[in-house]
Amino acid sequence: MNILILGAGGLGCELLKNVSMMVIRQEIQVNKITIIDMDTIELTNLNRQFMFTDEDIGLNKSEVAAKYISNKFKKMVNVVPIVQDLTLLNKEFYQDFQLILSGLDSVEARRYVNQICVQIAYESQFNSIIPLIDGGLESLKGHVKLIIPGVTACWECSISTLPTQGTTENSTGPKIGNVPLCTIATNPRSIEHVIEHVYIKALENSDKDKDKQNFYLHENWDQDDNVIKRLFRECEERAIRYNIPRDQLTIHHMLGIMKRIIPNVCTTNAMIAAECCMELYKIYNDLIDFEGEPKNFLMMNGNRGQFYYKFTYQRDPRCPVCNIIP
Predict the structure, then answer these.
(1) How many other β-carbons are positioned within 10 Å of the β-carbon of residue 132?
(2) Global pTM value
(3) What's the half-sphere exposure (Cβ side, CA atoms, 13 Å) at 140?
(4) Which stretch of DSSP H or E encloses residue 205?
(5) What does residue 174 show for φ and ψ, rounded to 5 degrees?
């Protein structure tokens, strides 16, 4: 079996570690684990992406993660890294895998891979079905979605369950919303990525220079015009550097994003990755009753105690992706 892991961030590192240990313990037999990520390692990643160290900053995440596993397990696990935007890879690439584990923080990338899996199943008349196990998290909350094209709901069927991003109406200004922080991309793809990066770097500088004059993210920084102008100028400069459109970049939008950044929690990463790999184990050992209604959706909430809920999420007959499947 060939397994594809999408993302080498906080969740992706946990997925790679778990799958590698399952191979070492001979719980599953895997010919190749491919891990794909287009980003490079930053200082802010190190609090939760345990495969990386200070010396790895600036290097490609997938390559460092693959090297870590190779060194840790003495090349007993075959891990192939790919540094590329996964939405640029065609259907033929994905057909090489028997199962896909997703640790992505991008909605569009998830939608793309989901569509590819449904397309492969449909065009092969279900002779080739690639299970997609999607993990996602936001601070102390998380989910696991098991997607079997033609059997369960696809990823697109449940898109309405995602937290609203950029669509919450604010009475005093433009539409703003929560922006989950999983990684700060070195190849930013939106103005939100730009704002996140500037904010995190400002926090780092503030922590380092607490007793110096250039400590500018003080307790009431969002009420200080000089601080706000400086942050806005840095956002403009970074957006220009990476050719990111600035039509949505306003001071109000910037503050809305910065004050709503949701931190990533390493414990949640580990728990969601464990649940994803449990689904992998059950698929591999034929422990899921696909003739009935398999419980394909898990919700976790650790904000107050520990809440787990697993249930069957039904296919949406109006889904624009999987409605081609009878």
Answers:
(1) 26
(2) 0.77
(3) 7
(4) helix 191-208
(5) -70, 170
